[in-house]
């Protein structure tokens, strides 16, 4: 089961609100937390989602290593987050994808945040499942380590999924803005502003 945590029902910024639930699938081995601060992580993810108008409930599911993630079990139980421990990265990725598509079938038109690092031999499967979920009316959100990971996805996935950088999720910040080539050329923002993902629009 997922733990369900309300992210509130009011918005203090003008965003299109999305009342459907959001399910977070998190590979905690490839995306470890500073000092194992699970409570802070959950709060910041909820904050990130709320800022973008996701006002439904948020459910977390963590996927760790069978041995090395065992110290997290007590903390996970305390927060109500379900922790699955598997023996390898390959096993984690496949279990995440299988579980996610099962929930997409049970909860169509929901939001799914996928925080994983892809594997070259599994990239086709990841893309196929993302497309399958989108056909079910699900909204797919991607949490990635950096832009190199993100741009490994094909353009059709990039343009249809909202992107969060891992470091921004940890801070409770919003996703990387989507801009077209024309908007990118006209951008006169300061150097210190958030990076924008650049998507070719034909």
From TrEMBL:
<dbReference type="GO" id="GO:0010468">
    <property type="term" value="P:regulation of gene expression"/>
</dbReference>
<protein>
    <recommendedName>
        <fullName>NYN domain-containing protein</fullName>
    </recommendedName>
</protein>
<dbReference type="GO" id="GO:0005777">
    <property type="term" value="C:peroxisome"/>
</dbReference>
<feature type="compositionally biased region" description="Acidic residues">
    <location>
        <begin position="180"/>
        <end position="190"/>
    </location>
</feature>
<feature type="region of interest" description="Disordered">
    <location>
        <begin position="177"/>
        <end position="202"/>
    </location>
</feature>
<dbReference type="InterPro" id="IPR024768">
    <property type="entry name" value="Marf1"/>
</dbReference>
């Amino acid at each position: 089961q997922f733990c369900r945590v309300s992210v509130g029902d009011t918005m203090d910024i003008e965003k299109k609100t999305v009342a459907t639930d959001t399910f977070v699938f998190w590979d905690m081995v490839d995306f470890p937390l500073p000092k194992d601060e699970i409570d802070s992580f959950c709060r910041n993810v909820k904050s990130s989602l709320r800022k973008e108008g996701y006002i439904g409930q948020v459910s977390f599911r963590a996927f760790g290593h069978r041995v090395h993630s065992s110290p997290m079990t007590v903390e996970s139980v305390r927060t109500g987050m379900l922790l699955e421990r598997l023996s390898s990265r390959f096993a984690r990725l496949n279990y995440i994808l299988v579980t996610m598509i099962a929930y997409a079938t049970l909860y169509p038109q929901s939001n799914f945040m996928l925080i994983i690092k892809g594997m070259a031999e599994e990239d086709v499967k990841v893309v196929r499942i993302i497309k399958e979920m989108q056909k079910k009316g699900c909204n797919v959100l991607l949490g990635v380590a950096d832009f190199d990971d993100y741009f490994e996805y094909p353009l059709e996935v990039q343009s249809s999924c909202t992107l969060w950088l891992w470091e921004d999720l940890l801070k409770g910040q919003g996703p990387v803005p989507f801009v077209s080539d024309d908007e990118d050329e006209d951008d006169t923002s300061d150097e210190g502003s958030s990076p924008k993902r650049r998507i070719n629009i034909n």
